[in-house]
Amino acid sequence: MKVTETLRTSTAGTSQPGDRSHHEAKFTKVFDGRKRSNRGLWKRNDRFYAQLTVFDHITGKNRVQRICLLDIGEPVGNVAQAVAVMEALRTKRRDTGLDAQQVTKRADAQRVAGRDLPP
Questions:
Q1: What pTM does this model have?
Q2: Between 108 and 32, whose confidence is greater?
Q3: Parallel, antiparallel, or unpaired: how do β-strands 28-31 and 37-44 relate?
Q4: Would you give the end-to-end CA distance of the chain in angstroms?
Q5: Mind giving me the DSSP string for 35-85?
Q6: Phi/psi at 73 (nearest 5 deg)?
Q7: DSSP letter (8 states) at residue 23
Q8: Mean pLDDT across the chain, nearest whole number?
Q9: Closest residue by Cα to residue 43 from 34, 32, 59, 58
Q10: pLDDT tens-digit series, residues 52-88
Q11: Distances (CA, A) of 106 to 9, 32, 110
Q12: Are 42 and 28 in contact (CB under 8 A)?
């Protein structure tokens, strides 16, 4: 072994393919083909989100919320679909009003859906 080399006995600090990252997933702006940002459109973990102002009945105030964009119950797959679904949400908000979606814990959501949780 050369003097400049060191013997590595542990694998701490080295990353292997498939290791999970310990940082949070971040929202990133979505850009179109001309590198212009789409207003109110965000992406996080391969899902698209629309950032809209919605009315919260609990507080009686408007609030900004990021809403996951779904097309027939499935997440949208590309920017064109995301823009179309976001425009449909904006139209719904303008016509009938869009209420704030309440975030529920996983356990509560599964109990409401009629599924039992594993112990």
A1: 0.64
A2: 32
A3: antiparallel
A4: 53
A5: SPEEEEEEEETTEEEEEEEEEETTTTEEEEEEEE-EETTEE--SHHHHHHH
A6: 80, -5
A7: S
A8: 78
A9: 32
A10: 998 888 888 999 999 999 988 899 999 999 999 999 9
A11: 41, 34, 6
A12: yes
Phi-psi label, residue 91: left if phi above 0, alpha if psi -120 to 50, beta otherwise: alpha
Using 50, 70 and 90 to split pLDDT, how confident is the model at 42?
very high
Q: Are 78 and 84 in contact (CB under 8 A)?
A: no
CA 103, CA 56: separation in Å to the nearest integer? 12
Residue 18 has pLDDT above 90, yes or no: no
The two three-digit tokens of residue 92, written as one number? 């719904």
Long-range Cβ contacts of 14-18 (<8 Å, 24+ apart) = none
Q: Which structure tokens are listed for 77?
A: 């797959």
Q: Is the pLDDT of residue 107 over 70?
A: no
